[in-house]
């Protein structure tokens, strides 16, 4: 056996899910397990992709994704030097780990949040500090209390995946005010576009303007419906972006991804429709959960964390799988379900009623 880095023993591969197996066999399923866009992809994006495809793909992408950066810079009223395009948000999470984490660095995460933070840090020899949640909400006081001289990064997913819960903005600012400037805070805003007005952290994408140690992580996979093309981005202070830029692969965003993301930014109507459908369907699911006395956490995302008493999450998963409905089992009795189309949600509701 060839010797390899010891850290590899602590990370797991991300395996294909059963739902993906069925899709490969062309079996129709209700896929509510990965928080993908319920309304698909904007037709305008598909049109732009067709046009670009007709020109062939033999030429490398623009490694700096100049046009996409320009469009985003305009959208957020920042410089393109504050933006780094990534191969999906996951790529951004991985590069941040590679650029910043040294062995024995302490990395603070919420115990029930996005798993990629942990893998990208552990693989670099970082030591995870897991902070318990408070009533299924990220505990920012717990984050602050966990800070030591060795703390390098705090990963803060807001709203949070998988719980869907959100820390309100005043507390977000209080927290950022209290974090020492030599600690990097990554504010994962993957679901920022789904947040309801009263909850919205208006400057979530540009927190770096006030806090130089904060990088915001964003993605085209969710509200923009481009999960299959892998486009995300980081926004932060120019110096940090410069550094991270050195750690990325030269062509980490591809030709089609760049074209699609640009077109997706332009189709504001699609984004609005996705947002509105998500809100109304979310309330429909809340109502159903309430009627059946199913415990759930209020969500500011496109998914809901819920618990059915007396059925383990894996049993529930199995029951639903037999009906070709896929959700994501979580710890204890909890499950995470993506908010689907009105029709998908009806089918999900009917299935849960039958199972109970
Ligand atoms: C979906 C998601 C991302 C990014 O996913 P990509 O598809 O890699 O862009 C990042 N963080 C959270 C919390 C997510 O749920």
Walk me through what this model shows.
It is built from twelve helices and 13 strands. The protein has helices at residues 18-24, 43-53, 66-76, 89-100, 116-122, 140-145, 169-178, 238-247, 255-266, 268-291, 313-322, 342-355, and strands at 30-31, 83-86, 106-110, 127-131, 151-157, 184-188, 214-219, 232-235, 295-297, 303-307, 325-326, 328-329, 334-338. The strands form three sheets. A seven-stranded mixed sheet has the order 2-8-7-6-5-3-4, sandwiched between helices. A four-stranded antiparallel sheet has the order 9-10-13-12, with helices on one face. It has a two-stranded parallel ribbon with strand order 1-11. α5 (116-122) links the parallel β3 (106-110) and β4. The longest helix is centred in the C-terminal third of the chain and has 24 residues, at 268-291. It is globular, with a radius of gyration of 20 Å. The site of pyridoxal-5'-phosphate (PLP) has 14 residues, from α4. Pyridoxal-5'-phosphate is lined by residues 35, 88-90, 114, 157, 161, 188, 190, 219, 221-222, 227, 232.
Major pleated sheet: 7 strands, mixed
Alpha carbon gyration radius: 20 Å
**What are the distinct ligands in this entry?**
pyridoxal-5'-phosphate
Category from helices, strands and their pairing: alpha/beta
Q: Helix content range of the residues, please? A: 25-40%
Overall 3D form: globular
β-strand amount: 15-25%
Strand element count:
13
How do the SSEs run, as a string of H and E? HEHHEHEHEHEHEEEHHHEEHEEEH
Q: Mean pLDDT, nearest integer?
A: 97
As residue ranges, the low-confidence spans are none
Q: Kindly, what is the distance between the CA atoms of the first and last residues, rounded to a whole number of angstroms?
A: 50 Å
């Amino acid at each position: 056996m060839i010797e390899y880095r010891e850290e590899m023993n602590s990370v797991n591969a991300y395996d294909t899910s059963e739902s993906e197996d069925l899709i490969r066999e062309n079996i129709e399923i209700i896929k509510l397990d990965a928080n993908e866009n319920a309304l698909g992809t904007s037709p305008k994006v598909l049109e732009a992709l067709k046009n670009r495809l007709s020109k062939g793909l033999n030429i490398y992408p623009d490694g700096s994704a100049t046009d996409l950066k320009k469009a985003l810079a305009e959208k957020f009223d920042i410089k393109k030097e504050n933006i780094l395009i990534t191969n999906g948000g996951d790529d951004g999470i991985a590069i941040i780990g590679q650029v910043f984490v040294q062995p024995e660095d302490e990395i603070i995460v919420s115990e029930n949040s996005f798993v990629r933070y942990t893998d990208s840090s552990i693989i670099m020899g970082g030591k995870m500090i897991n902070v318990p949640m408070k009533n299924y909400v990220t505990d920012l006081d717990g984050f602050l209390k966990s800070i030591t001289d060795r703390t390098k990064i705090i990963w803060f997913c807001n709203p949070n995946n998988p719980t869907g819960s959100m820390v309100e903005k005043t507390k977000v600012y209080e927290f950022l005010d209290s974090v020492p400037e030599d600690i990097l805070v990554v504010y994962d805003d993957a679901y920022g576009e789904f947040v309801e007005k009263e909850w919205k952290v208006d400057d979530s994408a540009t927190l770096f303007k006030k806090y130089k140690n904060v990088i915001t992580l964003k993605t085209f996979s969710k509200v923009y419906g481009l999960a299959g093309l892998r486009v995300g981005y980081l926004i932060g202070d120019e110096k940090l972006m410069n550094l991270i830029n050195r750690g990325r692969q030269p062509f980490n965003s591809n030709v089609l991804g760049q074209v699609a993301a640009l077109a997706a930014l332009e189709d504001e109507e699609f984004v609005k429709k996705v947002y509105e459908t998500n809100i109304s369907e979310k309330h429909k699911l809340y109502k159903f959960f309430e009627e059946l006395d199913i415990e759930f956490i209020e969500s500011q995302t496109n998914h809901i964390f819920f618990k059915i008493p007396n059925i383990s999450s894996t049993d529930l998963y199995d029951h639903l799988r037999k009906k070709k409905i896929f959700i994501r089992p979580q710890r204890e009795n909890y499950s995470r379900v993506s908010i689907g189309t009105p029709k998908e949600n009806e089918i999900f509701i009917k299935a849960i009623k039958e199972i109970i």
